[in-house]
Specification:
- There is one protein chain.
- The protein is an alpha/beta fold and 309 residues long.
- The protein folds into 2 domains: 3-135, Translation factors (Elongation Factor Tu (Ef-tu), domain 3, Beta Barrel); 153-307, Nucleotide-binding domain of ferredoxin-NADP reductase (FNR) module (Rossmann fold, 3-Layer(aba) Sandwich), CATH 3.40.50.80.
- Helices cover 19% and strands 28% of the residues.
- It is built from 8 helices and 15 strands.
- It has helices spanning 3-13, 121-124, 163-175, 197-206, 228-233, 236-241, 258-261, 281-286; strands at 16-25, 28-35, 47-53, 75-81, 87-89, 92-93, 102-107, 132-135, 153-159, 182-188, 210-216, 250-256, 265-267, 272-274, 303-307.
- The strands form 4 sheets. The protein has a 6-stranded antiparallel β-sheet with strand order 4-3-8-1-2-7. Strands 11-10-9-12-15 form a 5-stranded parallel β-sheet. It has a two-stranded antiparallel ribbon with strand order 5-6.
- It is globular.
- The two termini are 32 Å apart.
- The relative contact order is 0.14.
Length: 309
Amino acid sequence: MTEMEIAELRQKRYNGTVADLKRIHADLMVIRIKPDFARPPHSPGQYTTLGLGNWEPRVDGCQAEALKPEDLSKVVRRSYSISCSIESAPGMLVNIAETDYIEFYIVLVRENLDGRVPALTPRLFALKQGDRLNIGEKITGHYTLDAVGPNDNVIFLGTGTGEAPHNYMLWQLLARGHQGRIVSACCVRYRKDLGYLATHHDLMERYKNYRYLPLTTREASGTKKVYIQDVITSGELEEALGDKLDPARTHVFLCGNPKMIGVPIRDKAAGTKTYPTPTGVIEILENRGFIADISAMKIKGNIHFEEYW
């Protein structure tokens, strides 16, 4: 494609600008997008889309891509939960109403084991501040704090960038002076993958009802390698919460790896439910009296989840 053709496609298909970009490391970033339109009303925990044209460059070191000529002019999109840096400076919560950007927490997918070539993140990671892209004009999703009462305990359990919506929901709880206890745990491969770690340490100093549990699976976090399921079965989660995992006054939010979440397969006609292998968090918690919130089946529960792939 010629430079003129690319310029015309960008003019026609793009409606947002990279306002700020922070690289945690080569494969992880926090990016803020300023839409050309007024930011839509929304709730923390919801998502929108990001998109870039197939004509855009990709970062090096990713799975090779072979596009057909007719695909070069297409825009590839993907949904991303909205994140939040929580603080504008140490000791000061962000005033969302005074901002005009939408924040995202994104990991670079260099290769897919199933052979599908990653189309979007290799292009997102080639962006610079001031570059243009497409952003969805609608923000949606059922993964919100709507069911949480002011004195309920709230537990966020995420893997990798599944922490993104939890950061935004945590900001909402702190900003409105939530009285219940709050724990957020994020499980990653290496400690360097905890992009908001310093912020969470600061928040724990300021808010006595808040605890953050950083977990790693490929290097010791403290004294051992830990998965989210382990902190529940070992009692570490209750210790961090400073309270029992009581279904009557606790809401648990799960976001990230489907294997961590473990959504059961339900046969409505037969009235049966089968949990996947390996054991996920939903099975562990439902065995303790919790109920997964299944919107499609109109089941209201206290386990809320958002799978990332």
